[in-house]
Amino acid sequence: MTETLFSFDKRNYRDCQQMFRGTRDQEYYRGDFWIEESSNMDVRSERKTVGPISIIRQRSAANLFFRRSRQHIREDATDLSILWFVKHGEMAFSNQCGNKVAKPGDFVITRSMSPFFIECRTDGDNGHEVLHVTVPTHILRAYIQQDLSTGLFMPVERAEMAVAENLLTGVFDDDGALGEDSARLLVETAFALIGNAVRETEELQPARQSIADRRLEEVLRFIEVHLSDPQLSTAMVAKGCGISPRYLSFLLRLRETSFSELVWEQRLAKAKEWLASSDPRDISISEIAYGVGFKSPAHFSRMFKRVFGANPREYRGECSAREAEAEGVTMQMEPAGRFPEFPAAGQLLQ
Question: In the chain, what are the helix, strand and coil shares in percent, each to the nearest 5?
Fold first, then answer.
């Protein structure tokens, strides 16, 4: 359910600096906040929390101002990224790199560790409205690797951005029907979509894809689709993709791997992920082995231990222990696992 973070009108708008972070200063980061006096002083901010992430809808009939200075950063070094979806009015943003204005339909990211000034301007009819998401920057980095210290502006015209906005709005509007895990999944999916849109927008126009590149994509897709089939072979892939076995070998050499290396790598990687995320009461190690295309659990166990240094049962136990430890410790980084990353191509067959 949503909660009111703050609400200001003619009676209390002068107290906004002390109240805009909510009770016990549980939201936002430090800065100077003020409201322009006008005939209509209705300002309201509502919040929905999903773990450490807040989805906030802010509506105002008056112009709002927020300033984050270097002094505020020294006093409060909380590193947050704010994702803004502008609905009505304008959001003028200024920092050391210049001035920009976001209009309805625009998307903005700001970061608390760089000084900036924001002016939320009403449009006269619908006032000002934004949906914004506060997320610890170390969490957002898993989805957006670009440096956002000076901010980011882009229009919400890409399909990914529109879907992301709908997902976040849906989580905000949920009346309690969604479980916590489902809400987290939807928020994470929205972040992933935004990350894809940001990355693709910033990249240069890609070079024209060659026929070999397109064929390789088809091969990799076919292998992934049929990974669980223990009869998967070069002949099967070649026939399914309409190419010769020799040309298939050529395509895989472009990826600097062989058919056997690629298939075993993917099967073990999927099994490793499955073991880490599943409960032994729901699915057995044998079922996982067969599910990724191994002909026998014994063969799966030998291959898994050769690559990762522990058999599947030991690895699953280690994952369960780490998860239990993480649940019992608040605000503590999860310890690194003792299992190595996937080996380079060629090691699997040694």
Answer: 40, 20, 35
Dihedral pair phi/psi, residue 135, rounded to 5°: -140, 130
Does residue 344 form part of some domain? no
Residues 150 and 111 both lie in one domain: yes
On the question of pLDDT at 170 being above 90, the answer is yes
Total number of domains in the chain = 2
Residue by residue, DSSP assigns 223-283 as HHHTTT-TT--HHHHHHHHT--HHHHHHHHHHTT--HHHHHHHHHHHHHHHHHHHS-TTTS
State which H helix or E strand residue 313 sits in: helix 312-327
Burial class (CB in 10 A: 0-12, 13-18, 19+), 336: exposed
Q: Are 27 and 47 in contact (CB under 8 A)?
A: yes
- One domain, residues 225 and 300: yes
Residue that finishes a domain, picked among 181, 202, 223 = 202
Do residues 54 and 48 touch, judged by C-beta distance below 8 A? yes
pTM assigned to the model:
0.59
pLDDT over 90 (residue 166) = yes
The secondary structure element, H or E, covering residue 196 is helix 180-202
Q: What is the mean pLDDT of the chain?
A: 83
Dihedral angle at the C-alpha atoms of 249, 255, 260, 263, nearest 10 degrees?
-120
132 and 62 both lie in a single domain: yes
- Segments of 69-187 assigned E as strands: 80-88, 90-95, 98-102, 106-111, 116-121, 128-136, 152-155
Identity of the amino acid at 199: R
Give me the amino acid identity at 41: M
Domain of 265? 211-327
